[in-house]
Amino acid sequence: MLDVLLRAGFVDKDELAAWLETRHDRGIVRARKCVELVDPRAESIPESEVRVWLMLGGLRPELQINVHDENGEFLGRLDLGFPEHKLAIEYDGKWHDNPEQARLDKIRRQRMEEHGWRFIVVTSEWLRDDPRGLVETVRAAICRQVAIP
Length: 149
Known about the structure:
This protein is α+β, with helices and mostly antiparallel strands and 149 residues long. Helices cover 50% and strands 17% of the residues.
């Protein structure tokens, strides 16, 4: 939720961090950690949750990645990922079940896959039921790519 509040301009990260430094309330350590993890570039709450789980697992994804081909043609935009590994992490909420949206997602992903990108598509069920497994899947995908010459 803090990502959303920052994105909307309701909260200033530096002011909030300064205020939290003076506090000693119950849960204040967790609140300070939240401020460290916040990023207003996230465009949905589940996307923020995916990013935070990855960060807590020691991974540092980039957000809102514009992907271009070698000629500079725009191929699409990714929720988050690891450009150095050409690994995209996308959260697909229920609206991606819409047939037209699913068709557009498939086309966009295929264009990027033709240029070496790999995708891990996160669903609400996966995020809810096995977020640690999600982190390990991403970590394994990064390791597999690194190990391949």
